[in-house]
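worker-03 picked up job from queue 'complexes'. Input manifest follows; two sequence lines, order preserved.
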Amino acid sequence: MDPGSLDSYRAAGGYEMLRRAVSLGPQGVIRELKDANLLGRGGAAFPTAVKWEAVASNPVRPHYVVCNADESEPGTFKDRVLMEQDPFALLEAITIMGFACGAEQGYLYVRGEYPAAEARLRHAADQARSHGFLGADVMGEGFAFDLEVRRGAGAYIAGEETALFNSIEGKRAEPRNKPPFPAQSGLFGKPTGINNVETLLCVPEILSIGGPAFAAIGTENSTGTRLFCLSGCVEHPGLYEFEFGVTLRQVIEAAGGVRGGRPLRAVLLGGAAGSFVGPDALDTPLTFEGMRAIGATLGSGVVLVLDDTVDMTGLLRRIAQFFRDESCGQCVPCRVGTVRQEELLARLARGTPLGSARQELALLDDISAVARDASICGLGQTAVSAAISAVRLGLIEANGTGGNGKEPA
Amino acid sequence: MDLRLGAATPATDDERAAVASVLGPPAGGWDGGERTAADAHVAFGGHAARARRHLLLPVLHAVQERVGWISPGALDHICVRLTVAPAEAYGVASFYALFRTSPSSSAVVHVCDDVACQVNGAEQICEQMEHRFGAEGTVPGSNGPGITWQRSPCLGQCDRGSAAMIQHAGADPGRLVLAPFGPDQVRSALAPAQPATVASLLAPAAAAGGARGSGLARFLPGGGGV
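worker-03 finished. Artifact:
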């Protein structure tokens, strides 16, 4: 399919699902999503139908819908591939969302580092508008919907939904306290539905095969298919789609296995905000519940494979530096905690711990607990999770006692 | 709103044109245009004037692309046009990594050194960049032609090896993603002999080419290929 041509998209069955959505009505669309048990693919795995229903039933007007395409989690590139290859599908999906949520205005927030995706989406939106698929009377079906493509400006935190609202509003991308949730008070203080690109693209699929059929794919609690971003030390890095229930081993084997046949040291699951798992987790199914059981997360579908040659300490320090740099600075646990984490990992790498390595690791635990409990948003809450999981797996080599050499009493 | 502006030098014509490309020409003295006698007898402000705040990022992008940085004069002009306090606008401009609030080269190379690229030799590439273009963040000369490089968080190109993005400011601005990236590519990507290289990425014709990027591999029972 030609991502620059509306005709080619329609020839492949494009916009038929919007037609079906209109015939089902807003409630019907939401019922299908509920039957499908669709969970958000952006990282938080929240039921999509619950969000949409809360927006649709909110008496406050106007309503807005937003597509979160500010994909910045290190190791994630699925939304870029989807937007570059099939921009019209995303437009159709967000139009369905606007119809179901009773919104006449949508926003597509694309990160500034994706020029090709943005260009294709803008071009697609222009074409859709001139052919009546966006505008005052969409497809002659008597409802209005239009959307605006907005460009991010290089802030990881803007991918947090309320920070994204602030960014569209022309403010610093600082997350807001929740509640109120976006369905009550979102963009411009109005009820807002917001979903990730991959989640939205599940919607036409659900309308096509029906909610119950979608729910039959995958496992009971993780329905449908999932995209995995394979990168790092694999033979064929790329984007892979599997039904939920596939194991980590199968995913890595599909990508040709570990590069050069080297032994696997660890896998970073879910990106910098995710956690490391060791080779013993290879047979865990990559489902929301399977990951929860081993204390990991699917996050945005990152599978960063690391072999035995990788400098783990350097990698961890890069993650710590990333969070220190990307913390918006609004709340203390994250702003200070991310700095302390980076300093701590640097001390361990130098072999000069404060007190002993054991004390340092206890301090890391403390930082993690405080950040998790007291941060406003998910960035702070997960900023230390990768380091904690690395400690658990023994990936950090705390160099003996170091420092003053004294173990705590 | 009674705005207190502090810039020593007013916005240049280029900067004003960049702002106008998003907001349209100013209506009068109240939003940054020529002050006429009639302006003294009316007042525009309140909610209607402040309701345009959401255009701040698009306007900042326009100035950044045209001039390469957001000068104090440009920022003041933006504040008048959108009725935003200068401190607020500076807070926004300095928050985002792709906006610069100090004079910069026309081309900024963002070299990804995040986790996935680190596994693919990002450190060696950064060393080569340092050797070729000077230390990270060096701005050769004052604002104008030149190349500055800096490390960047993940650019979302993890399937293609080590990546970089060139942010190119000027009359024909653009952003160009290079992956896999090597320092040799910088000059050829920006060479005047190929002025279309940066712009072509944004053209829909290039979008149709499909030369970029790996596809999506589906592993679904009975699902077939892509």
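worker-03 released lock.
The beta strands of chain A are 63-69, 103-110, 146-151, 192-196, 225-232, 238-243, 264-269, 275-277, 302-307.
Residues 151 and 250 of chain A are 36 Å apart (CA to CA).
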